[in-house]
Amino acid sequence: MFELPEEHRMLQELVAKFVDRDLIPLEKAALAREAQGQPSGLTPQEEEKVLATCRELGLWGLDVPEEYGGANLPFSALAGVHEEQGRTCAPFTFPPDSPNLHMLIAAANDDQKRKYLEPYARGEAHSAIAISEPGAGGDPAGMTTRAVKDGGDWVINGRKIWVSRVPQADFVIVMARTGEGKRAEGVTAFIVERGTKGFIIEREIPMIGGQRTYELVFEDCRLPASQLLGIEGKGYAPMQLRLTVRRLQIGAWSIGMSRRALDMMVEHTKQRVTFGQRLADRQAIQWWIADAAVKIHACRLMVYDAAAKADAGKDVRMEASMVKLYGTEMATEVIDHAMQSFGAMGVAKELPLQLMAQKVRTMRVYEGPSEVHRMAIARRIIGR
Ligand SMILES: Cc1cc2nc3c(=O)[nH]c(=O)nc-3n(C[C@H](O)[C@H](O)[C@H](O)COP(=O)(O)OP(=O)(O)OC[C@H]3O[C@@H](n4cnc5c(N)ncnc54)[C@H](O)[C@@H]3O)c2cc1C
Questions:
Q1: Residue 138 contacts residue 369 (beta carbons within 8 Å)
Q2: DSSP state for residue 89 in the 8-state scheme
Q3: 160 Cα–ligand 1 center, Å
Q4: Which residue among the candidates 84, 215, 329, 367 is catalytic per the annotation?
Q5: Which one, 260, 267, 287, 333, has the greatest CB density within 10 A?
Q6: Ligand 1 pocket residue status of 138, Cβ below 6 Å
Q7: How many CA atoms lie within 13 A of 159 on its CB side?
Q8: pLDDT confidence of residue 182
Q9: Do residue 214 and residue 131 come from a single domain?
Q10: Of 366, 380, 382, which is best to mutate to test ligand 1, by the most ligand atoms within 8 angstroms of its C-beta?
């Protein structure tokens, strides 16, 4: 029998209460903002209040190492946290956002840890990551943004696109090609602070689900050598680690999203009568409910298996691809069935289902499209 340790279950219960009491009540306003074409993100006042509650409850720095004041929780504890968080469409991130945290832990030197990691770990600094380019997204090894050495400095030229979290970012981790290496070889990470000369936020791009991404231009953007993150030409491995962390998180979010959709579908179909019978008594609807329950169960086991392996220090790139692919495709289907069961109300901008559907639609593209994960999984299997 698979069971979580007691302390992980207690943490999950705490987050479940926090989501029900502090985040779900914010959905109505987020839905209204998105319906009016505005960003659906929390307002500064809403965010401040929620962050204060997080601090009170100790829901802060969950995966931050103890030496930086965090709880140093393993991935298997965070899976329950992210599952509960997935149940709400109110946009919120437990500080600090995990992927860049793990990249900084893996790659930053002592000075960078003091300057960037420590305030980031405390939730005082924010960051973004710029990997994708107009000509290279799903295949980031095809990036052409280049950093060239000039005396003791680096000079970056190129263009990045679809970058999230830019307005609040104090620094951006920028991936650029250095040296002559091909594909993943010769890609280096740099820390570019907001306001650095030659770092231009070219435009904001509204995305579905009330999200925003940004196109960035680097025009003779000059950085001192101290801004190189990790080892020159070896930026791909810590970048992959960061992507793996997000993919595990996406798998867990997908479980929470699907649970919420399933709960809503069950509640509605038990009381809605058409043609003299409850929807819940129709076989078509029962199959949606049964399939959702089976897939949620399967996905949870996949996420905990991947998390346990990651906690044991194993390479989980394959498992992370699997949970990201399976989770987002499951959530797409379950949310769509729930929307269909609600009829017109299912596609109304008043229900969270449609916002969740838009969000999961973007999740099937970012951190690698489904087709690229299928390719990566198949290649590993064929190559064995
Ligand atoms: C909401 C959102 C937030 C994002 N945030 C960030 C961010 O913060 N930082 C960042 O760097 N990037 C970010 N991205 C970019 C994201 O990582 C890329 O969009 C993604 O990797 C796909 O790249 P692309 O858009 O260039 O599509 P392409 O690589 O051109 O692929 C287009 C489509 O082609 C198909 N395809 C591609 N390769 C294959 C293949 N091998 N086999 C079969 N089919 C294939 C897939 O269906 C894919 O969707 C974000 C994207 C979105 C939508």
A1: yes
A2: -
A3: 13
A4: 367
A5: 260
A6: yes
A7: 8
A8: 80
A9: yes
A10: 366
User: In the beta sheet, which residues pair with residue 217?
Assistant: 159, 200
Query: Could you tell me if the CB of 162 is within 6 A of ligand 1?
Result: yes
Q: Which domain holds residue 116?
A: 6-121
Closest CA to 328 of 384, 277, 379, 369: 369
Judged by DSSP in three states, 145 sits in coil
pLDDT recorded at residue 4: 85
Judge if 204 and 309 occupy the same domain.
Answer: no
Which SS3 state, helix, strand or coil, does residue 191 take? strand
Is 367 a known active-site residue?
yes
Task: State the Cα–Cα distance between residues 237 and 243, nearest whole angstrom.
Answer: 10
State the pTM of this model: 0.96
pLDDT tens for 228-238 read 999 999 999 99
Q: Does the pLDDT at position 324 exceed 90? A: yes
Ligand 1 near 164 CB (within 6 A): yes
Query: What does the alpha-carbon distance between residue 9 and residue 5 come to, in Å, rounded to a whole number?
Result: 6
Rounded Cα–Cα distance for residues 113 and 121 (Å): 10
Residue whose CB lies within 8 A of the most ligand 1 atoms, among 132, 321, 379, for a mutation test: 132
